[in-house]
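Example record for the data management plan.
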Amino acid sequence: MNLIEALNNENSDELQKRMRLLGMSAKDCPTRKGDRVKYLRAYLLSAELNDLIALMTGAEQTMVAEVVHNQSGCVDQARLLARYGSIPAGYLQIQAGYWSQRYGPSEPERDKSLLGLIFYKQCIPTELRDRLKKLLPRPEEDRAAVTAEDALPATVEAGHRFGKLPVYRRNMELAARQDLYKVLRLIDQGRISVSEKTHVASVASMNRISAELYEGDFFSAEDEDQDDVYKDKLSPMRAYAWSLLVQTGGLAKRAGNKLQLSTKGKKVLQRKIPFAETIAELYRRWRDKGPIDEFRRINRIKGQSRRGKGYKGSQMTLPQERRNALELQLQSGPAGEWIQVDEWFRYMQSSGEQFEVTGNPWGLYLVDAEYGSLGYGGFHEFSILQGRYTLAYLFEYLATLGMIDVAYSAPHGVRSDYHENWGADEYGYLSRYDGLGWFRLNALGAFSLGMVDEYQLKTPKMPPLLRIIDGLEFLLLRAPEPHERMLLEQYATISKNQLQLDTVRALRAIEQGGSLVDLISLLRQQTESRLTVDIEDFLDDLETRTTSIRDCGSARIFECASESLARLVVESGETGKYCFHAGGKRVVVVEKSWRNFLNGLRKLGYVLSTDSTVV
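Corresponding structural encoding:
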């Protein structure tokens, strides 16, 4: 829209009001609309625009600069409010009372402002925008404010109903390094069942996963017992997400109602694919193909899947679009720093990388579809929809993958942004994720998001854990960290303050997918002196015992009518490269060469008897 079009779109009275802003009396204003348009255009495109800008307040100048440089010339009020906290009164007209704001339109009180000469239907015409870009410098880039680690609180206020709740802090990067392999091992053992329709793990399977998680799932029994009328369960969260992540990531597939490892999943369990690359791939696959809308887990917001004749539904947007928008925002934020969630909400709105959760908020509701609809003014604010989706995605998926560290409490009474909504009176929280207070994008998250090219786990410096006593015995110099104890218990017996490496335990651990590399790394880094010859021999012997025999896949055994025929099959150019002689009349064919072997057998002039025994 150019300036002439913008001016012509206004009626003559509106043009006169704009001319009065220049100090012109009603008597001196031209009477014809065309003359008023001509005068205003000439003024705004002349050098006098500089004087007009100089007369504006600092807030008005900042607003104009933000719109012309960062908003393509049209006002995004939510973005401005998020960035600056307010909009100059002359632009954001003062509405009449509470009821008219929330339930109906009202005529705004007019406030004189020079902004009226700049904005037309909330936009700045193109020629005027180009001039203003040269006159006003680009505002500094907005940044999310960070919270110092020592400033994270020990408790949060949850109102008179719940008092103070403890804040838990979790290093999820360390947790994911344990959880990934624990979950894959459970799948390899055939202990994880999933729904054939939703692919969600069964309750019993999620309980098994929860029991294996590093430091357990996010919420304790005490958190679950907080007084809440509806008694909804907070857990599982990580146990819920892991089975979905490994399926979407191609590490496991459903066979009936059981999960089984894919070829890729077996390679991950055997540590043939690096941990960080696996997490990055799981993240990308979930971002692009995750089959479940994370918002569905906010079960107190109803109507997400409601259907009916003539009913348009809640029109939920594609989760992939939301995930991509969140990725861009995380990539633009600070890595390695704690960010308070409400500050992140502010930054999300200020950044302009917006996403929608629904195209029809009237279809979503609390308690009652009519009275509790989120379509009413003020009932579907950013924190209710986009904010709750962000909390679910960060807390249940990115934290589970180890990409962000989290500081959180139980959700009861922590957020009050939904209290004005009809039907929310008895809710102690809107979603199980409401307690997420701070998060930190860690090194694993930065690598998974493509912000850095290399990944290296950063662990806090600790005093040595072990002192060699004799042979394969160690003295514990301090209490092991949870991840240290979890690893050592697989390879050694621990009694009071002593540890004894155990060959049988070690072989069993490696057979079940444990990593000898992880054990060697821990022993060398956490022993106060160099490892002795006895210990190095023990580790070398373990490596020999666990790498000397390898699984080459399944095979079939065939028995020929005679030993001479067996030798003919093995030595023939048609079949010999697909099989080998097992002695006597028997021939072995590797499963992957099965079809090629049969084709070669036909060319040799034979076919397999239908009653042959398959071993």
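Summary line stored alongside the record: Residues 93-110 have pLDDT under 50 and may be disordered.
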